[in-house]
Amino acid sequence: MNKKTAPHGLGRGLSALLGDMDSTLSEPKPASENAVVMVSLNDIDINREQPRKDFDEESLKELAQSIKSVGVIQPVVLKKNGDRYSIVVGERRFRASRMAGLTSIPAIIRDIDEEQRMRQALIENLQREDLNPVETALGIKALMDKCDPTQDEAAEVVGKSRSAVANTLRLLNLEPEVLEMLRSGLISAGHARALVTVSPARQLRLAELTVQQGWSVRQLERISALPEEETLRAKPKKTKPPEISKLEKMAREAFGTRARIDGDENKGRLIISYASQEDLESIWSILEALNQGSM
Description:
By secondary structure, the protein is of the alpha/beta class. The protein is 49% helix and 13% strand. It contains 14 helices and nine strands.
């Protein structure tokens, strides 16, 4: 049999963790560490401790459709737990396979201890491009808390500089309401980094003003540097009409990304933001469907 090497797109360090994979499908044989075997989806449990908590439904549907057409190209990695298996790498593929109606999935069974399992799962998720900033921060913190790497080692794992990792971790010092605004895309990571520098009492007010007035990161940085009294005297712009706010919300839900309307009922502009190539492709697909009259 010819050996198949792991695709280059898995992210730095992950291919080394997984190694080469034998393309032979057979009954589960944990002793053959690199063999690809078929495992029943009903026998697999998800990893409750991974940083990714939200899986985009539309993205999962697209992957499920691809799996229906060509199958699961990249096996998941599992750990044997008695009569069951837990996911080390590949929860998104597992969920999409279940959505596609599959009863089993190709997998590599690894005999690893709990720390290794946790480390591999955290690294695989942190190397994804579509994690939101809060998930990334929580994932890095979990990696450092549970696997005890240095900040330099954590930075190498996620492909960021040490200062970028430090700034990402600082986001967790934000007030819970502001963190939720960041998670949902109402404010960007740049806005959030500016808000970390102010007192907890000011964070939420400035975050709300940022959304209401459409402040850029640079504007927020400048305002955050003002004395607190001047910030409190700042007069917010006229509240948007309910219809405009509702339309903004509809745009965010429709495109699955940040969207803002500047203007009123008579004149203005709709700004749709994207943070990755995947976001842009999703926006393109939706607009193309609208143009063809299929939505």
